[in-house]
Amino acid sequence: MSEDDTPEIYKAALLIIGNEILSGRTHDSNTPWIAERLTEHGIMLCEVRIIPDSAEAIIETINALRGKFDYVFATGGIGPTHDDITAESVARAFNAPLEQNEEAFRMLEDHYGIEELTPPRAKMSMIPCGARLIPNPVTAAPGFIIENVHVMAGVPRIMQAMLDYVLQTIKAGKPILSNTVTCALQESILAQDLEALQVRYPEIQLGSYPHYRGGVLGLSLVLRGTRATELEAATAELIGLIRKYGEEPRALSLRTATGT
What we know:
By secondary structure, the chain is of the alpha+beta class. The protein is built from 9 helices and 13 strands. The chain folds into 2 domains: 165 residues, 3-Layer(aba) Sandwich (Molybdenum Cofactor Biosythetic Enzyme, Chain A), CATH 3.40.980.10; 80 residues, Alpha-Beta Plaits, CATH 3.30.70. Strands 2-1-3-8-7-6 form a 6-stranded mixed β-sheet, with helices on both faces. Strands 9, 10, 11, 12 and 13 form a 5-stranded antiparallel β-sheet that branches. The chain has a two-stranded antiparallel ribbon with strand order 4-5. Helix 2 runs parallel beside helix 7. The two termini are 31 Å apart.
């Protein structure tokens, strides 16, 4: 692919693996953090799935996502316990053997010492054959990359360190810019106008988000895209639409998006 053919935005999916998330016992704080970091790198998070610690679910979901998106990021299930089955399941999804990775074993040995490297800890060196390791500066147990699938820990501090490494190694798109316009109009009043505006600017993502703050109902309208000129033009038209209904909008300045 030549430089001119490089996509403006890469598309990604996030797979969160863990019964503890589905049960509500553990709060998912990884999704917003990952979404913001990807957006900064011109990678659009388009889909998030939360699934249980089930081999069948992991295999099915990995295979469904990896052919649909440029990147798949998975978190959870690579620890030392019996329900940590992500590595084994991803290996099965790729029809790859699961084997003890010598480099991963050395990482764990350096961290724990050979006497403290128990079988459950050594289990974390079992990696699909052919995968590349994602370093873990916190607890040493690495994640891994196989084709376009990036498997990371579920613990937020560890996942964040792993994702920082991953983002240095993959292709990024253009920074995604965002404008936010707020007003006091009801969403239904602007619905048809927003639909027409979206048709005129198909490369701009236009989102409508009602909010209730301080006892007052309001509306936040978020425009996102990679081309500043097009984004500014769409924003100007949106402001004109709001004024048409007798409201004076408040527009935030153009910025590199870190989510909505």
